[in-house]
Design brief:
It is a single chain. Helix 11 crosses helix 12. The chain is built from twelve helices and nine strands. Strands 1, 2, 3, 4, 5, 6, 7, 8 and 9 form a nine-stranded mixed sheet that branches. It has two domains: 237 residues, Alpha-Beta Complex (Spore Coat Polysaccharide Biosynthesis Protein SpsA, Chain A); 36 residues, no CATH class. By secondary structure, it is α/β, with parallel strands linked by helices. The protein is globular, with a radius of gyration of 20 Å. Helix 2 links the parallel strand 2 and strand 3. The protein is 43% helix and 22% strand.
Length: 286
């Protein structure tokens, strides 16, 4: 039986990019159903007109459906923030697995087919994370580096703080761990990943399935200090490393020339140094 994938798009004044987001979801091909939910969080621009355009196209059967079927739903509400908008969408979700896709990002062709197949092959998996691309404003696309660790665990999450920007999780795990923490507006996803990794079996899918946009007015660009404040709160909440992951990576990068020589000449010695490095880092946790 084909799986249903629920995708939630929270949006606020994203007329510039949301059409690309919507089209990337509705254009997915394969043996699955799409349950697409858009929460219009009080937009005052042309966002709602774009959302209604695709509702009309689907109702009039003028949009070519290339999967088993599409449920397209949207809700307009007063502005309440991204986290509560996602939670509202998750509470409406009907799929086996779900995720959210922000309205300035988009999926690549074949994304849902790859994810659906992975869940079908691994019914005990509750969380799948993948590679993605960064798209820079007025620049070319490039794959993000470093790629996710294929063997992430709760302990490596505490050390590296991976945010798993592109992922799908089962609705059964959501029922077990609960929804997003609405006291958080920047790192609510990271908080959820900690809770998932405490309970669930996870899997890395080595495919680039989506594009994450970096532009002048995105939360990633404008809210760096707020992101770090919430990351520290979460590190304390789950007993993660005192040193922020980006500082760990920066320190490791300074050692890269020496480490690269050791890795090329004596790979086993490199692994020893690597293990010692992270063991020392792991001594300093909240």
């Amino acid at each position: 039986m084909a799986l249903t994938l629920s995708i939630i798009t929270p949006t606020y004044n994203q007329e510039k990019y949301i059409e690309e987001t919507i089209k990337s979801i509705l254009s997915q091909e394969g043996n699955f159903y799409i349950d697409y939910i858009i929460i219009n969080d009080g937009s005052t621009d042309n966002t709602i007109s774009i959302i209604e355009k695709y509702d009309k196209l689907l109702k009039e059967k003028k949009w070519p459906i290339k999967c088993n079927g599409i449920s397209y739903r949207y809700k307009t509400r007063k502005n309440g923030g991204q986290t509560s908008a996602i939670n509202e969408g998750l509470k409406m979700a009907k799929g086996y697995a779900a995720t959210w896709m922000n309205s300035d990002d988009y999926y690549l062709p074949g994304a849902f087919e790859a994810v659906a197949k992975e869940f079908e092959k691994n019914p005990d998996i509750d969380f799948i994370y993948t590679d993605f691309m960064r798209v820079y404003e007025n620049k070319n696309k490039s794959t993000i580096y470093p790629r996710p660790n294929p063997n992430e665990t709760l302990e490596t999450l505490k050390t590296r703080g991976n945010s798993f920007a592109v992922n799908f999780f089962t609705m059964r795990i959501v029922k077990e761990i609960g929804y997003l923490d609405e006291s958080l507006q920047y790192c609510m996803d990271l908080d959820m990943w900690f809770r998932i990794f405490q309970k669930a079996k996870t899997k890395y899918l080595p495919e680039t399935i989506a594009a994450f946009r970096i532009w002048s007015n995105s939360k990633t660009t404008t809210g760096k200090s707020k992101f770090e404040k919430e990351r520290e709160l979460i590190r304390k909440r789950y007993g993660a490393n005192i040193m922020p992951p980006h500082k760990i990576h920066k320190f490791r990068k300074k050692l890269s020339p020496m480490l690269n020589i050791i890795q090329n000449k004596t790979p086993r010695l490199y692994e020893v140094f690597k293990n010692i490095f992270y063991k020392i880092i792991d001594l300093f946790k909240y």
